[in-house]
């Protein structure tokens, strides 16, 4: 890197003066040579004059060019100095950096307890895991400071390099031949040099300060990386030698002693540190988890209110347990399912999640399951709580080993009592008994490993045994709650549009899908595996397989990125379908006489487009797909559209036009080319109309937009109906008008404004024709209202002795007189 030296300027000024004197000497020699050549011929003189003129013209051009470059350089120097001054005002946070380095050193000292200091006779898996998580967080903090300082130093060096490169431009060393111009130019250089001196000094000083901080940060980063590598060596060795003896037999004297109070103190400190670090880095996920719990609670509470309003809730909540306490059910469902979005969480956070779920499930269990199995559940929760507290103790001690032995022994005894009492017939979920049997097996092996000095193996099996029961029970009831929730939703959402959200509700509730149980077992294995040292190393090849970069042409991808892309798009599609399905308000109408609201209507399509578009952008960003590849794909789609996708694109664009212009909405009553019905859904490509005959008419959006569409709902769902009848010529027309008006007024389904109209049309062949025009409040009641009015009018006329004549014809038979001949 070129560093500008401010002591160059006196030497430069001296060089400029020597060059000026040299130029004057050359001019003097030129004049002398001209006097000597005065005797040359005229032609020679003219030729020499031409050469001198050309030489002078070129020199003048170069001088002008140099002046322009010099002005630009001086201007860039001034701009660079102004930027440097402004950047120097934004100095690096020296105090904050030093303070954070001290905090990192203090946290490192706490984290290293039991691993790098006070090691004892053997390392423990939990202590190594907790320390590794803390060191990685501290390393991330240190690297963030290092990155900031590196950037700051690069900026400072960049300013110095820029100034040095500008002042080294060759054009600056081309001086004017005129003495007065040369003096002004030298003054300008002196001014620039004077202004640059303090800035250059400030940049040097700032660069030195930053370098000092960088040295300190680099030392901390290096120390953290070395410690992490050392821990990885310990972890690998522990994973390879899982069954290796860690300590002597339980009855053997302890080789080293450290008070349990000290061990508990640094264990609590490490636990709180890991929890705070992880919560700080995953605050967004925690907020999402809370929002999901809130949304689930709102939905389950609304579902419970619908069942309560329809008197469908059972007193014992059999088959409806998910609705008993909506907040508890929401907590169990969301935390149990979405805890896996937290990658490698600290054990203390997982314990908090599980205990919250256990507390919620206990509230739901109370009064629903038998007292015996409720006590069994509470015992398992207590065992899990004690084993979790013990698992938070990060260094081995003889006190802890005896605690593990006693609690594991009690757990085995209680588990055997539960198994031999054979009260499985009272269980709501029979699989629970298998988890209890597995717990007995794990705790038995834990006791033997503890006695024989296999501390890490014993502790892993100790926590794994009770954790297996709690997680199995939680997951089994999660599957049950999901199954119940879908069945209950089917009872309410009986008219769902399968085109929007297809689900075979007829099979829901009878038996949970096998896929749910498969996911349950997979989740159980993952949660159990995190307690074993070998789990990370056994899963490492699989992680490497998914994370490995692969090249296809110029595009680099990994299976993880592709799976992430597919997962985000699948979630976006699922959310869009769920929104479309549940946004139809008529499904949630409690009172059947209540008029359903239109709801989101055609806005659903826009909402779905927004959700899918956001999902696509997020998927592209998460997968790291370059935008130029997207442009190529769009270009290929353009060619495809030009050749054979015109109809599809027409339908898609028509769907957007329908969504924005809203000539029709979901729930509107329409007539399309004589086919009447109700708009059931408006999709991307096609829309669905439920006809009066009970069929669903699937119509492409292009055809729907180009058809003669009649929308009755836009006019308020009213329809004018006419009744034509005839009256006898002997009838009192005023009385008939009054009777008809009274009948129409008494009908509640007839609109009063505009009111019905009774008109006498014409004198017919045998009747006076009457036409009755009236509006019905809703088009669905139009024909039923006309039918009822005909019955009411007939009854009213009969009561008032008014006859409704019918066409009659008189047939006259004419017999002509017989001829005289015939008479004879």
Automatic annotation (TrEMBL):
Gene3D superfamilies given in the database record: 1.10.287.1260, 2.30.30.60, 3.30.70.100
GO cellular component: plasma membrane
Location of this chain's protein in the cell: Cell membrane
Mechanosensitive ion channel MscS domain span: 647-713
Domain spans labelled Mechanosensitive ion channel MscS C-terminal: 722-804
Membrane topology: Multi-pass membrane protein
Keyword entries, A-Z: Cell membrane, Membrane, Transmembrane, Transmembrane helix
GO MF terms, alphabetically ordered: mechanosensitive monoatomic ion channel activity
Segments crossing the lipid bilayer: 283-300, 321-341, 347-365, 372-389, 401-420, 432-455, 461-479, 514-535, 555-579, 600-624, 630-653
Chief location category: membrane
Similarity comment text for this entry: Belongs to the MscS (TC 1.A.23) family.
PANTHER family cross-referenced by the UniProt entry: MECHANOSENSITIVE CHANNEL MSCK, POTASSIUM CHANNEL RELATED
Name of the protein in question: Small-conductance mechanosensitive channel
Species in which this protein is naturally found: Pedobacter rhizosphaerae
Origin organism lineage: Bacteria, Pseudomonadati, Bacteroidota, Sphingobacteriia, Sphingobacteriales
């Amino acid at each position: 890197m070129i560093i500008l030296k401010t002591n160059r300027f006196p030497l430069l000024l001296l060089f400029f003066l020597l060059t000026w004197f040299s130029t004057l000497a050359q001019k003097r020699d030129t004049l002398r040579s001209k006097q000597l050549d005065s005797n040359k011929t005229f032609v020679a003189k003219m030729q020499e004059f031409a050469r001198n003129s050309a030489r002078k013209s070129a020199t003048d051009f170069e001088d002008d060019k140099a002046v322009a470059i010099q002005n630009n350089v001086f201007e860039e120097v001034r701009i660079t100095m102004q930027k440097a001054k402004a950047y120097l005002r934004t100095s690096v946070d020296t105090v904050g950096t030093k303070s954070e380095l001290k905090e990192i050193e203090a946290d490192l000292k706490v984290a290293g307890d039991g691993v790098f200091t006070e090691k004892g006779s053997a390392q423990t898996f939990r202590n190594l895991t907790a320390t590794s998580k803390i060191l990685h967080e501290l390393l991330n903090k240190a690297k963030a400071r290092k990155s900031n300082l590196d950037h700051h130093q690069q900026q400072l060096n960049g300013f110095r390099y820029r100034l040095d490169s500008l002042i080294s431009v060759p054009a600056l060393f081309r001086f004017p031949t005129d003495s007065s111009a040369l003096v002004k130019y030298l003054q300008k250089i002196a001014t620039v040099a004077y202004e640059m001196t303090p800035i250059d000094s400030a940049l040097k000083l700032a660069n030195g300060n930053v370098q000092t901080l960088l040295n300190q940060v680099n030392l901390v980063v290096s120390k953290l990386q070395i410690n992490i590598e050392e821990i990885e060596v310990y972890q690998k060795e522990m994973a390879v030698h899982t069954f290796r003896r860690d300590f002597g037999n339980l009855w053997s004297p302890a080789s080293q002693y450290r008070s349990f109070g000290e061990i508990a103190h640094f264990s609590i400190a490490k636990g709180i540190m890991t929890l705070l670090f992880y919560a700080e880095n995953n605050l967004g996920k925690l907020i999402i988890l809370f929002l999901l719990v809130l949304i689930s609670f709102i939905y389950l509470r609304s579902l419970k209110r619908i069942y309560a309003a329809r008197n469908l809730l059972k007193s014992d909540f059999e088959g409806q347990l998910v609705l008993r306490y909506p907040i508890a059910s929401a907590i169990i469902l969301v935390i149990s399912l979405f805890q896996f979005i937290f990658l490698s969480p600290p054990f203390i956070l997982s314990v908090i999640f599980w205990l919250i779920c256990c507390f919620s499930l206990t509230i739901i269990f109370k009064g629903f399951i038998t007292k015996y199995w409720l006590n069994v559940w509470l015992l398992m929760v207590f065992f899990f709580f004690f084993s979790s507290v013990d698992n938070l103790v990060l260094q081995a001690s003889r006190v802890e080993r005896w605690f593990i032995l006693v609690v594991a022994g009690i757990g085995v005894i209680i588990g055997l009592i539960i198994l031999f009492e054979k009260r499985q017939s009272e269980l709501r979920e029979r699989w629970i008994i298998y988890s209890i049997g597995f717990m007995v097996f794990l705790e038995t092996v834990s006791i033997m490993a503890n006695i024989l000095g296999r501390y890490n193996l014993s502790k892993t099996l100790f926590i794994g045994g009770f954790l297996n029961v709690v997680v199995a029970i939680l997951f089994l009831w999660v599957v049950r709650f999901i199954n119940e929730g879908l069945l209950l939703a089917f009872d309410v959402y009986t008219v769902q549009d399968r085109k929007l959200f297809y689900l075979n509700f007829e099979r829901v509730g009878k038996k949970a899908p096998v896929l749910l149980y498969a996911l349950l077992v997979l989740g159980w294995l993952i949660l159990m595996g995190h307690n074993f040292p070998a789990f990370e190393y056994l899963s490492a090849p699989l992680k490497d397989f998914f994370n490995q970069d692969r090249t296809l042409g110029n595009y680099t991808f990994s299976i993880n990125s592709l799976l992430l892309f597919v997962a985000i798009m699948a979630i976006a599609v699922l959310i869009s379908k769920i929104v479309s399905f549940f946004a139809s308000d008529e499904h949630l109408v409690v009172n059947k006489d209540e008029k359903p609201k239109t709801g989101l209507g055609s806005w659903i399509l826009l909402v779905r487009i927004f959700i899918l578009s956001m999902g696509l952008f997020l998927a592209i960003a998460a997968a790291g797909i370059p935008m130029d590849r997207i442009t190529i794909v769009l270009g290929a789609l353009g060619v495809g559209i030009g050749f054979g996708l015109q109809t599809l694109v027409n339908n898609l664009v028509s769907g957007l036009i329908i969504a924005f212009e809203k000539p029709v909405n979901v729930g509107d009553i329409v007539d399309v080319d004589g086919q009447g019905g109700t708009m059931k859904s408006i999709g991307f490509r096609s829309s669905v109309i439920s006809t009066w005959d009970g069929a669903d008419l699937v119509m492409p959006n292009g055809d729907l937009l180009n058809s003669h569409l009649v929308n009755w709902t836009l006019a308020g769902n009213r329809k004018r109906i006419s009744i034509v009848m005839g009256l006898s010529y002997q009838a009192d027309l005023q009385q008939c008008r009054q009777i008809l008006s009274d009948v129409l007024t008494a009908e509640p389904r007839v609109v009063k404004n505009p009111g019905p109209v009774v008109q006498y049309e014409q004198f017919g062949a045998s009747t006076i024709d009457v036409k009755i025009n009236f509006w019905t409040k809703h088009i669905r009641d139009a024909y039923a209202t006309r039918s009822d009015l005909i019955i009411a009018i007939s009854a009213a006329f009969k009561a008032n002795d008014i006859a409704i004549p019918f066409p009659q014809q008189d047939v006259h038979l004419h017999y002509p007189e017989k001829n005289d001949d015939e008479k004879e």
